[in-house]
TrEMBL record:
Domain Glycoside hydrolase 35 catalytic: 4-73
Organism encoding this protein: Ancylostoma duodenale
Pfam families per record: Glyco_hydro_35
Higher taxonomy: Eukaryota, Metazoa, Ecdysozoa, Nematoda, Chromadorea
Gene3D superfamilies for the chain: Glycosidases
Xref: InterPro entries: Gly_Hdrlase_35_cat
Name assigned to this protein: Glycoside hydrolase 35 catalytic domain-containing protein
Length: 79
C-alpha cells in the first residue's frame, strides 16, 4: 500500500500483478514509483498502474481538516 519497492517487497503476492499507489506528488516520485513497479512485473513489462489515487483525504469527527492539494497539482499527477 504505497509507491516504493519496500511495499512491493513486503506485500507483493507472487502470481498477481503488482501495482503501486500515490496521490498528488512530483514527477520524480511518480517515476520512482513506476520504476519500482517494473522491478516486480513479470519480465519487467506491463501496464503502469496506480491502484489508489487519493486527491484528498477524509477527516474524522473532531480532527482538524485535511490538507487538500490544489486542483492543478491533482491534475498534473494524474496525467
Amino acid at each position: 500500500d504505497g509507491g516504493s519497492a519496500e511495499y512491493l517487497k513486503c506485500g507483493f503476492v507472487p502470481g498477481t500483478f503488482p501495482t503501486v499507489d500515490f496521490g498528488p506528488t512530483s514527477d520524480e516520485n511518480i517515476k520512482a514509483a513506476f520504476d519500482d513497479q517494473r522491478k516486480y512485473m513479470p519480465g519487467g513489462h506491463g501496464p503502469l498502474v496506480n491502484s489508489e489515487f487519493y486527491p484528498g483525504w477524509f477527516v474524522l469527527w473532531g480532527e482538524k481538516s485535511a490538507r487538500i492539494p490544489s486542483t492543478d497539482s491533482i491534475m498534473k499527477s494524474a496525467k
